[in-house]
Design brief:
The protein contains eight helices and six strands. It has about 210 residues and is of the alpha/beta class.
Length: about 210
């Protein structure tokens, strides 16, 4: 399959609320024929269960569980999806020689954001984010917290100054298509895809179109 030659996008889910954002991003990327390297933190398993009613295995059958939940055909999409344990610090995304399109941490907890901003690489997600920054690839962080305190804001500023993109799921109202939860999710994920230079999506109508 030609698409397997593309650079994968690393997608990471942390223990913040909003797991559906990460799963839907994976779905949209796969449907666009983009390979995905998926990292799910240990703290997010309970959130995923509570918010999405989805129990994820910790075995190598995780890819099948994700695809079945997203209602995607395994025969077609399994070659494009690779899941990694957050404890697997030696996985490919942890190395700068492993070429990727970039990385999205979605949703991103304040703990993970603080570690990335401080250069603490004690798990695969923060190590992969550190690698993404040092290799000057696109790192997009979707923080899920409200309101932000001074520490949160200072960490986001530090990460922005290091080259990261801070893209919180902010509500948008200027199009009727956004007047639903599904529309708001699509808007946020469309912005993420834009910053990955994947602009051929139709997740939202563009201004003036």
């Amino acid at each position: 399959m030609e698409s397997t030659l593309k650079r994968p996008t690393v997608v990471a889910i942390t223990g913040a609320s909003g797991s559906i954002l990460g799963f839907q991003l994976v779905k949209f990327l796969l449907e666009m024929g983009e390979p995905v390297e998926f990292i799910i933190s240990a703290h997010s398993y309970q959130v995923i269960l509570e918010e999405m009613k989805l129990t994820l295995p910790t075995s190598n059958e995780q890819e099948l569980t994700v695809l079945n939940h997203l209602q995607l055909e395994p025969d077609k999409y399994l070659p494009l999806l690779h899941c990694f344990s957050n404890k697997h610090i030696g996985a490919p995304p942890a190395s700068g020689t492993h070429l990727t399109r970039g990385m999205v941490v979605i949703p991103c907890s304040m703990t993970t954001l603080g570690k990335i901003a401080s250069g603490i690489s004690d798990n695969l997600i923060v190590r992969a984010a550190d690698v993404t920054l040092k290799e000057r690839r696109k790192l997009i962080v979707v923080p899920r917290e409200s309101p932000f305190n001074q520490i949160h804001l200072e960490n986001m500023l530090r990460l922005h100054q290091a080259g990261g993109v801070i893209l919180p799921p902010v509500l948008s109202f200027y199009q009727e298509a956004f007047h639903s939860l599904e529309g708001q999710i699509s808007y946020t994920l469309g912005k993420v895809l834009d910053h990955l230079d994947l602009t051929t999506h139709n997740l939202f109508p563009r201004w003036g179109s």
